[in-house]
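writing this on my phone so excuse typos. first protein, seq and then structure
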Amino acid sequence: MKRFTPLAALALLAAPIALAGEINVGFSPEFTEELEDDYGMREADYLIDAVKDDLDRELGKAGLDIPRIEVTILDAMPNKPTFKQLGDTPGLDYGSSKSIGGMKLSATAYDADGNATGDLTYDWYETD
């Protein structure tokens, strides 16, 4: 999936904050069901790591430290077949198969006292 450079917008919402913090990534109930049924739960760890890495990178570029960010992945689509899709669909070719790919998420930044300082909903898909 493409890197989410616009996530820096979330960092700008919380600019006055000054402590290094944690990034928690979860899934909406609807997307959790889609992961289980269509893509496989194995993909959950890849998505979580990608979002955390992107946020860490963009916050570092912006020179911001935010105590806590809560991210909810609302939807995601792979740009290549997942391991589960390959197993469920005989004849599907990983090398030749391509899909739209992309993600929709929402995030909230919190200050050191636990007060929400900014919200962001963001999506990006290959067709955009």
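second protein below, same order as before
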Amino acid sequence: MRIVVFSDTHGNIRHCIDVIDRIGSINMIIHLGDIIKDVEDLKILYPHIPIQYIAGNNEFRNTVPYDKVLEADGKKIFITHGHLYRVKYEYHSIARKGADLHVDCVLFGHTHEPYEAYHDKMHIMNPGSISLPRRGKPSYGVIEIEQGKLRTCICNIV
């Protein structure tokens, strides 16, 4: 199973389209917030790919939750934008939430900076921003689940 993870598109899905078209074989897309309208546009362009998403801190008057737990190929994944867990200042709170939920992977955005770690048998990843990176190049994440093993990686847009 291959999952592509985007965050912080902020009204610009051009790079998302490039990534999806280039990768081709995608089983799911996860969008970690900022902006839900971008998710709606991706759903129109790629109706055959399931898209999971949550609201970000720039979503006003929405009915979309700020976080949720997904199951993908037997693995539990916690998705959140991250602003409710102080990710601009520390990662302990979000890691503790993932541990409390007994998930295999925690995904968050908000900082516009990529981050990847493995802690207490749990993957923690922020794919960075695909349209407004704070440092470096625009980036996105990929999760692969194969034979019961979950792997994460952060990819840069060249």
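The two ends are 24 Å apart (CA to CA). thats all i got for now
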